């Protein structure tokens, strides 16, 4: 057991409040490293990190790979198209095969909720969930928390609107509980068809009208419309969605002074965000990406370091 | 060592630094957090008094360069802040207590990641012996013979409310090292002041 209260980060619930703040504080130090000319630390020299990405991803996979390499770990990428999963190997067998190669940390992205847990049960390595289906994406939540905290100086008391495809969103699944845990107030705003059947379990307030309290929020967090996960048609058209739930210049002008705009990416320009809003100085989309590397470095360092559990 | 003795030792160390480098023109100080950075700031003030030159001062956190990361993690990581180019400079590393030499080994690696200084020198307030690596200090405030089971710790007014170097008995199994910035218990038994 390392210095965190958990060996695996499969959901945001694995991390205590102390774990979250320790990760965010540590990430701040790694941020400095990323501004140097020589962006490399010897910290995880000789450790092996395997990126198992069984669902398409560019930013998350690249971010994890950069994070591992900057810590001098050996990063190996493993994607669906080049692996034996296309030959019909089961997830358990893939896990056991990797385990037999003695890797230290497995990062897994999969389209089925819960698959990181199956992996964690079958490897000795630590496991980080990099997104599983509609379930969880804990490192996205951490980098979002980092971005909000660096901008406002605190998370407690922030009013955060999370707008859009709530029901299909693993980002929401991790971020909303994390914000609530740290004392922020979350409102989910979406058409009724994109809200879950039992919104009360979200621990968030729910609204179907973006315009109603637009001026109240410190953070407007827009979720991507996930066309790949949408089975029926919950919205009549993307254009209609953009009219009612998209952030455009008109709505931007009505935001609270100092409010910021966030999006986990990739942005559907003209749908969740109009192009001018996406490039606006109050949009922190690229700060989020930037924070992602530092936060993932921090998590790797805290999971793989300090194996005797003491901090000294 | 009391506050006056520490101040005198730092004054002598400052003069030695200036003598060896023929002035302060190409010098930059880098203090190792969490206590070496405080000493580096004091040496910079003394250089200003003696030579009238403002030298660059940086702080360095070596947590990510430690050779025992897999086992131990620092309680809090502080941000490294070296707001100047180290290329071609004579870097004087400053730390409070020189013990095994492992911190200095890590600091040397860290500095090299910032560039290529023309030279790196080491100034410490206290050398307590028990080196585990072939490292020595260029400037030493005081040699303090110690037992490996004792802490030799530097306390400073601005953080601890007193400026002293103290030798403290370590609890069995306790890790030997610098005092934490916010000591939870200051009632440890004092052996020698």
Brief rundown of the structure:
The complex is a heterodimer of chains A (312) and B (193). Chain A is built from ten helices and nine strands.
What does this structure look like?
The complex is a heterodimer of chains A (312) and B (193). Chain A has 312 residues and is α/β, with parallel strands linked by helices. Chain A folds into 2 domains: 12-136 and 289-305, Aspartate/ornithine carbamoyltransferase (Rossmann fold); 138-288, Aspartate/ornithine carbamoyltransferase (Rossmann fold), CATH 3.40.50. Helix content of chain A is 36%, strand content 14%. In chain A, the strands form 2 sheets. A 5-stranded parallel beta sheet of chain A has the order 7-6-5-8-9, covered by helices on one side. The longest helix of chain A is centred in the last third of the chain and has 20 residues, at 285-304. Chain B has 193 residues and is α/β, with parallel strands linked by helices. Chain B has a single domain, classed as Rossmann fold (3-Layer(aba) Sandwich), CATH 3.40.50. Chain B is 25% helix and 25% strand. In chain B, the strands form 2 sheets. A 5-stranded parallel beta sheet of chain B has the order 2-1-3-4-5. The longest helix of chain B has 18 residues, at 3-20. Classes of the chains: A alpha/beta (312), B alpha/beta (193). The A-B interface holds A 2-3, 25-26, 28-30, 32-33, 36-38, 40-44, 71, 301-302, 304-308, 310-312 and B 61, 63-65, 69-81, 109, 113-115, 175, 177.
Q: Termini of chain B, distance in Å? A: 6 Å
* Count of runs of 4 or more consecutive helical residues of chain B: 4
Strand content of chain A: 5-15%
From the helix content, strand content and strand pairing of chain B, which structural class follows? alpha/beta
The quaternary state of the protein chains shown equals heterodimer
| Structural shape of chain A | globular
Q: Give Rg of chain B in angstroms.
A: 16 Å
- Provide the domain count of chain A: 2
User: Percent helix among the residues of chain B?
Assistant: 25-40%
- How are the strands of the largest sheet of chain A arranged? 7-6-5-8-9
Instruction: Kindly report the average pLDDT value of chain A.
Output: 91
Regions of chain A with pLDDT < 50 over 5+ consecutive residues?
Answer: none
State the CATH superfamily name of the largest domain in chain A. Aspartate/ornithine carbamoyltransferase
Number of strands of chain A: 9
Q: Assign the CATH topology of the largest domain in chain A.
A: Rossmann fold
Summed over residues and divided by their number, the pLDDT of chain B gives a mean of: 87
Annotated CATH architecture of chain B: 3-Layer(aba) Sandwich
Task: State the helix count of chain A.
Answer: 10
């Amino acid at each position: 057991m390392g210095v965190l209260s958990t060996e695996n980060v499969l959901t945001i619930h694995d991390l205590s409040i102390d774990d979250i703040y320790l990760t965010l504080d540590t990430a701040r130090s790694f941020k400095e490293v990323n501004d140097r000319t020589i962006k490399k630390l010897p910290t995880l020299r000789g450790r092996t990190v395997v990126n198992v990405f069984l669902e398409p991803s560019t930013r998350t996979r690249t971010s994890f790979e950069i994070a591992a390499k900057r810590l001098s770990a050996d990063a190996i990428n493993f994607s669906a198209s080049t692996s034996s999963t296309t030959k019909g190997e089961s997830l358990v067998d893939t896990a056991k095969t990797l385990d037999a190669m003695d890797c230290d940390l497995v990062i897994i992205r999969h389209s089925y909720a819960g698959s990181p847990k199956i992996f964690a049960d079958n490897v000795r390595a630590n496991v980080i969930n990099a997104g599983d289906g509609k379930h969880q994406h804990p490192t996205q939540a951490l980098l979002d928390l980092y971005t909000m905290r660096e901008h406002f100086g605190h998370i407690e008391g922030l009013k955060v609107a999370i707008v859009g495809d709530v029901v299909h969103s693993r980002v929401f699944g991790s971020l909303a509980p994390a914000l609530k845990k740290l004392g922020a107030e979350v409102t989910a705003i979406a058409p009724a068809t994109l809200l879950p059947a039992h919104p009360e379990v979200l621990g968030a307030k729910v609204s179907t009208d973006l315009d109603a309290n637009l001026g109240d929020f410190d953070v407007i967090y827009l979720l991507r419309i996930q066309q790949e996960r949408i089975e029926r048609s919950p919205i009549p058209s993307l254009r209609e969605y953009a009219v009612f739930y998209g952030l455009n210049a008109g709505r931007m002008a009505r935001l609270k002074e100092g409010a910021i705009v966030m999006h986990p990416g990739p942005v559907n320009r003209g749908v969740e965000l109009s192009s001018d809003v996406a490039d606006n100085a109050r949009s922190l989309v690229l700060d989020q990406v930037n924070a992602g590397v530092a936060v993932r470095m921090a998590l790797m360092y805290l999971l793989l370091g300090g194996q005797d559990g003491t901090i000294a | 060592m009391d506050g006056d003795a520490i101040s005198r030792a730092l004054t002598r160390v400052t003069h030695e630094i200036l003598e060896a480098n023929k002035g302060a023109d190409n010098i930059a100080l880098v203090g190792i957090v969490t206590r070496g950075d405080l000493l580096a700031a004091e040496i910079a003030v003394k250089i200003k008094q003696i030579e009238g030159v403002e030298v660059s001062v940086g702080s360095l956190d070596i947590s990510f360069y430690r050779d025992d990361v897999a086992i131990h993690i620092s309680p809090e990581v502080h941000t490294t802040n070296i707001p100047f180019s180290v290329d071609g400079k004579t870097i004087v590393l400053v730390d409070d207590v020189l013990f095994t030499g492992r911190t200095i080994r890590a600091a040397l690696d860290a500095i090299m990641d910032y560039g290529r200084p023309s030279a790196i020198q080491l100034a410490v307030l206290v050398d307590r012996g028990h080196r585990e690596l072939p490292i020595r200090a260029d400037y030493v405030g005081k040699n303090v013979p110690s037992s490996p089971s004792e802490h030799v710790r530097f306390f400073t007014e601005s953080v601890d409310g007193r400026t002293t170097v103290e030798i403290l008995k370590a609890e069995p199994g306790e890790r030997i090292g610098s005092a934490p910035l916010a000591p939870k218990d200051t009632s440890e038994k004092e052996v020698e002041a």
